[in-house]
Amino acid sequence: MSVTLVAVLFVAAGLTALGAFIAAWKRDLTGALTGIPVMFAGAGVAFVGVARFGASSGAPLLGQEMAVLLAIAALSAVGLGIGLAGPEGSR
Amino acid sequence: MDSLHAIGFYVSAALAGAGGLFLAFTDSRQRRAVALGLVGLGVAGIDLALSAGFTALVVLICYAGCALLAMRPDHRFLEQAASGPWRQAGAVGAALLLAVLAYAAFRGNFAHATFNGGPFGSVAVGRLLFAHDALATEAVGGLVLASLVGAAGAWRRERPRDERGEGRR
Questions:
Q1: In this structure, what is the dihedral angle of CA atoms A43, A47, A53, A59, given to the nearest 10 degrees?
Q2: Is the distance from CB of B57 to CB of B41 less than 8 angstroms?
């Protein structure tokens, strides 16, 4: 049993598509917002996979750095979305 | 990559996928938070199996934060303006996206390189973040600051006036 870049990219594709599905399918907007971290997770996994298996030149850990930044951006997006939704019963 | 890492990778991928599916089809806030936590745990496991320990740690913290935010019981339910057919079109679009990405992954002719990094790599990633790509790090720091200020401002503005007065007393 081994892991290849193709397997990693398959998982990344699945997570990205699942995140897009959640964002499109959820009726509640704050629920749809939770699709963003899943999509970003897919992108992050792809970056980490390329850094692990395919980075032949340049900084080899650039993909890991991008995954870190994507995770932080996902947290910010969810925080901003929940804040903009506002507390219950305010309108 | 040895068998243990490979097993870890596939188990984590299954966990992330199951968490994502659970997230897609649940409506309860608590269950949504659990599902988001499962996705974070799965992605952190994938990162750990791919020798990206520092990334796994950051992912775990960020997704735990996302889960805690999603679990809040007091945020408003806002219904999407898009009607049923548009949401169904979006779901079909997501399926098409999966097909295109999976085809690209399957047909891609990727170069293979030897990985020289360690299992954790915090020093190398930190050097990249704060020396090589400091501008990108600052941009994300600015994004975090703007989103925190925006969220706090919006939340405070939306609270009823009498509730704010009670908080002050």
A1: 170
A2: no
Distances (CA, A) of A31 to A82, B84, B136: 10, 16, 29
**Count of structural domains, chain B:** 2
Is B7 contained in some domain? Answer: yes
CA distance B12 to B63: 15
Task: Verify whether the Cβ–Cβ distance A83 to B151 is below 8 Å.
Answer: yes
Rounded Cα–Cα distance for residues B29 and A46 (Å): 29
Question: In chain A, where are the structural domains located?
Answer: 16-82
B161: containing domain: 133-169
User: What is the model's pTM?
Assistant: 0.86
Residues 131-160 of B with CB under 8 A from A: 132-133, 136-137, 140, 143-144, 147-148, 150-155, 157-160
Does B93 sit within 8 Å of A20, measured CB to CB?
yes
Q: Considering only CB atoms, which chain A residues are within 8 Å of B40? A: 37, 41
Residue range B70-112, pLDDT digits in tens: 888 777 777 777 777 888 888 889 889 889 888 888 887 777 7
ipTM for the predicted complex comes to 0.90
